[in-house]
Amino acid sequence: MTETFKPKIVFVDDEVEVLLALQRIFRREYEITTFDNPSEAIEFLSKNQVHLVVSDMKMPHISGAKVLASAKEYQPNCKRILLSGYSDMQSTIEAINQGGIHAYITKPWDNELIKEVVADAVKTVILEAENDQLSQQLQQKNKDLEELVTTLDQKVLDQTQSIRLSLQRLAAAASRQRKLLHQIIEMISLIAAAQRGSHYKDDVRIAKQCKLLGLKLQLDKNTLTYIYLAASLHELGKIALPEDLLNKIESEMTQEELQILHQQALKGAEIIDVIPSLHEVSDILRYQYERYAGKGFPDKKKGDEIPIGARILAVVRDYHKYISGQLTGTKFNTCNALQALKSQANRIYDKNIVNTFTEMLKDIPEGSDAQFCLTTDMLKPGMMIAQDVKYANGNTFLTKGNMVTAALIERMEHYELEHDFVFLVFIFMPKVEDDSLEEKAI
């Protein structure tokens, strides 16, 4: 790349004011072409190479999904971003399926966020082009090695090192692709949470604990990833539920209403099934209401027939429902919630998973609410550490008796992100009449 190189971006929107605003944001760093007519944009894309296409979803005559699908047909290597002023899940699914979108941005956008998303997309296109070139170079270098292997001279060693570096770069590119997948899942989860009127952070908290429980059960890295993604989306299908069921206490539901509630698992799995590489994730969603002893929903699977991710999700999901009051209308404390899970072990839940989850929280004293077990996102400045907090390698990060500060929380969040790790923090809270703290317990 030279200093004068500017990546090429096409913006498509039937509102001229929107196009002018986008041009103002990106004109310094990119070569911008705008269209308020989708047909003209498609014609342009059939003849000109670009790095990125950003299209509005709702336009007269031709939708953004059609524009992005055409861009995918003419230029499969460019990235595609959907821009929309409304959260229409069906349209989003259509755009993912037809146009293979890289990201989804809602109107009105945040300037810094849209800059970040666009920059990430353009960098990915350039990196993929470099990876193609590297792959060709790698093939040539392998051929050279076959010719030189009999001599075992220094040139062979140099070429081997070059291949190793190339493979490292390819591995880095694969890591970026996994990150993009997580971003798409997060996008869908945010939209679904907004539509069902709940908090995205609740889904993240459950996902973190499912992953932590999977680590305790010594599951492999791929399985842990699928469990985390599924737990992040475990209530995705609720976007299809009647509004009167969304906030109803489950113990007060009729059998017919419970059946409708459980149907959300199938709807969520159906949505995720549009992404073929996420089959394991959709299976976890589909079977999250199966019972360990059988007679569950939808296929009456039992025991190990139920995916391990679905069994883990059932325990963590219902634990949170007990402490939030969603199951019975009464908010259970930590110990009572665990006892409720144990009472249904080997009937509804996998006993081994219930016991491992309890072991994960074993230092909470029976019959006492003096300690609360929290994940990093639940910490607040002023809380007191009840037990030493450990790094992933077992070394002590924070000792018992220290006070939580905003700086400490930021350090812990940064460490979790860098090391793909989840802290489990025990907080000491003195007895108070206000029950609000109890509501925050895991």
TrEMBL record:
PROSITE patterns the UniProt entry points to: HD_GYP, R3H, RESPONSE_REGULATORY
R3H domain sequence ranges: 139-210
Keywords: Coiled coil, Phosphoprotein
Entry-linked CDD domains: HDc (cd00077), REC_HupR-like (cd17569)
UniProt superkingdom: Bacteria
Gene Ontology MF: a single term: phosphoric diester hydrolase activity
TM region(s), chain numbering: none
SMART domains (alphabetical): REC
Residue ranges occupied by any Response regulatory domain in the UniProt entry: 8-122
Keyword Ribonucleoprotein: no
Pfam families, sorted: HD_5, Response_reg
Residues with PTM 4-aspartylphosphate: D56
Record domain HD-GYP: where: 177-373
Ranges in a coiled coil: 124-155
Gene Ontology terms describing biological process: phosphorelay signal transduction system
Gene3D superfamilies: 3.40.50.2300, Hypothetical protein af1432 (1.10.3210.10)
Protein name: Response regulator
Phylogenetic classification of the source organism: Bacteria, Pseudomonadati, Pseudomonadota, Gammaproteobacteria, Alteromonadales
